[in-house]
Design a protein that fits this description.
By secondary structure, this protein is α/β, with parallel strands linked by helices. It contains 8 helices and 7 strands. Helix 4 runs parallel beside helix 5. Bound molecules: nicotinamide-adenine-dinucleotide (NAD).
Length: 254
């Protein structure tokens, strides 16, 4: 498929995991891709494997609006406009409200929810010009609660609701706004879980498809939502979760 030829796409958190897979997918489908993230080395590694004519990377901390404004300006300057923004960068500190330190709470909200706000605010005028779209990486953790992920749950709940609010506000401008809500996906963020056999067994039991996702499977859903195949889809927070949210939470029988 070559759905993104002549399209310009920004992916945040593109140096690893879901963001890396997403940048690769858009590039494979012909897009000009701007990879953003808070660390230079991983971005340079991924960008170095993509077509240099259609690839740019820029270090930007999504919690800082000035960084994100500069990122969007660089994309528009390099490639002449912007069609797709993927707000994907995120962090996931563990802890219930008694364990999460106030600075970690603030940082989590600033990166996960603030990053989506900053990216969307900076990109919107350009997206309106090209009738473009936004895809946010929310989480099943924005649809229901987890044990010991209080700050993360709050931040992803905010992403889900911001996705819906922006879809309402900007539909009239021709800008679609959607989110993907992955469950456990094998990335650097979930390295600890992957290494813990007991924990992995518990996850497998709760995932109807019986396994975690690979980053490319989340990237495929992001690319679908960003493509013309989804031209009448906006305000959707799509679980890409192997069936996890099909459950009401009760245990399996037998
Ligand atoms: N892995 C999972 O199980 C899972 C499940 C649901 C949702 N998600 C979400 O997917 C997204 C991608 O996570 P991942 O699993 O690929 O993990 P990851 O740690 O590989 O990717 C996160 C990326 O964001 C970047 N980043 C972190 N803080 C940043 C900041 N302030 N500014 C710019 N970039 C920053 C990191 O450098 C990293 O490349 C996150 O939003 C995460 O919450 C992950």
């Amino acid at each position: 498929m070559q759905r993104f030829v002549d399209k310009v796409v920004i992916v945040t958190g593109a140096g690893s995991g879901i963001g890396e897979a997403t940048a690769r997918r858009f590039s494979e489908e012909g897009a000009c891709v701007v990879l953003a993230g808070d660390r230079r080395a991983p971005l340079a590694r991924v960008a170095g494997e993509l077509d240099p004519e259609r690839t740019l990377f820029k270090v930007a901390d999504v919690s800082r609006f000035a960084d994100v404004q500069a990122l969007v300006a660089a994309a528009v300057k390099a490639f002449g406009g912007l069609d797709v923004l993927v707000n994907n960068a995120g962090i996931a500190p563990e802890g219930d409200v008694t364990k999460v330190r106030p600075d970690a709470w603030a940082r989590t909200l600033a990166v996960n929810a603030g990053g989506v706000f900053h990216g969307s605010r900076a990109a919107m005028p350009h997206l309106v010009k090209r009738r473009g779209c936004i895809v946010n990486t929310a989480s099943v953790s924005g649809l229901g609660g987890d044990w010991s992920l209080a700050a993360y749950n709050a931040s992803k709940g905010a992403v889900v609701q911001l996705t819906r609010a922006m879809a309402l506000d900007h539909g009239k401008d021709g800008v679609r706004v959607n989110a993907v809500c992955p469950s456990l996906t094998i990335t650097p963020m979930t390295e600890d879980i992957k290494g813990d056999r007991r924990q992995m067994a518990k996850f497998r039991e709760r995932i109807p498809l019986g396994r975690p996702a690979q980053p490319a499977e989340i990237a495929a859903a992001i690319a679908f939502l960003a493509s013309d195949d989804a031209s009448f889809i906006t305000g959707v927070c799509l679980p890409v979760d192997g069936g996890v949210t099909a459950s009401n939470g009760q245990p399996a029988m037998g």
